[in-house]
Predict the 3D structure of the following.
Amino acid sequence: MSEHDEQVLARLDTYRAHDAPTHGGRVLSYVYDSGLAELDALAGQAAARVQAVNGLDPTTFPSVALMQADLLVFAREVLHGPPATGGAVTSGGTESIMLAVLAARERWRQTRPGDGRTLRVVAPSTAHAAFHKAAHYLGLEMVTVPVDPRTGTLEADRLAEHLDETTVLAVASAPAYPHGVLDPVAGIAAAAAERGIPCHVDACVGGFVLPWWEGTPPWDLSVPGVTSISADLHKFGYAPKGASVLLVTDPALDRARYYALTDWPGYPVVNPTVLGSRSAMSLAAAWAVVTRLGAQGYAELTAGVAGVTSAVRQVVDGIPGLQVVGEPIGPLLAVGTDPAVPDHVQVDPHAWAQAVAARGFVLQGQPALTQADGTVLARTTHLTLTPASVGVLDELGAALRTGADDVRGQAPRHAAAPADGPTDLPDPVALARAARETGELDLPAVLALIETLPRAQSARLLVDFLAAFTAPPTGRA
Ligand SMILES: *Cc1c(COP(=O)(O)O)cnc(C)c1O
């Protein structure tokens, strides 16, 4: 490597020094560390070999089709899809969900030509934001059905009440991200099937860990009425970011996600996913990881994750003032305040997350949400356990306990409702500048603000914040 090349990489290293650690189990969201350095190295090598390939055209680059086929066969087997199950390898859960929603919308329109009614996606309120985003992009109405704040899920009948003629898709999560709780997949799928509505199971986070998790009720493509499923390779598939699987059991529904165009003077276009030209690097990396691990490798990694999850659950159960929400199945937990203990024993989950961060572990704060029926999902702090958590279990457990001790009895922070409207709000641009300069962000304050403000307003603040945080420096005067 030339000296100049070294300098380029050294500069990247200085940028990377700002990042949260991706390995070692200190960040309990965003990253899914298998703890196997050789697996990461293999993924990197595989990615490098296809660096110049364009995934746009598998007829020119058949390796793309071959790797994708291997991944789809593996996913179909572990998720119990019937033999005719088709699908795609996408860039991530959001794209898999986008395509599932698109296919359902297109199928609805194909079978009811000329019907211009507003169409809907019906999901529990805990369904991932990606469904809201898909509905937004695709001109659909997102109907969120309240879940029981105690359990984090709902009876299938409650969701079934909202399924109507204009519903293109019913959704169940396995598990839902916020609380790690499984929806009643069988009940929701049966209710949808009865009405001729497709049912998508969002197993983005669960898809490559629940197949080996003990005591899980049926949730995959073996359940009658489930027509599609999303499972992220870049979560518990342990592949680098940029890979997810969408499986669709009905070939007509599967075809409906494609986009083809012959109505322009360029090359004939047929895109199975959202992008045109696309990297094959994340596909090859995921393919290498899955091929190397196989079902046996996933079973072994899952055993470790299940053990550490149950140990962390015991730690949290033993902390006065906190409680796990509902009955999570899988490696995700949401922790909230235990309302049954006196005020001076209660622990605010966001203050707790901040105290635990000071002790070296990054947890993820989730704001309270008022549902359509007025019930409130309390604020929580989210933890995702991974194989890397196993090696730091003692340290993590100690941080969770002593972090709670640090803040027990403190009054929870709430943002004041802005008396004078927007002029009273913190300036998101100033917040972003401060965060960029100090590398620190007062997350509990941000979350409290989100809980207080009308949703459209808090969403706009987030946009202003991120735009300012990522803005390129302004040019020279
Ligand atoms: C992560 C996740 C998604 C979205 O996936 P991205 O890969 O972040 O786009 C969707 N649903 C669930 C349940 C998830 O955990």
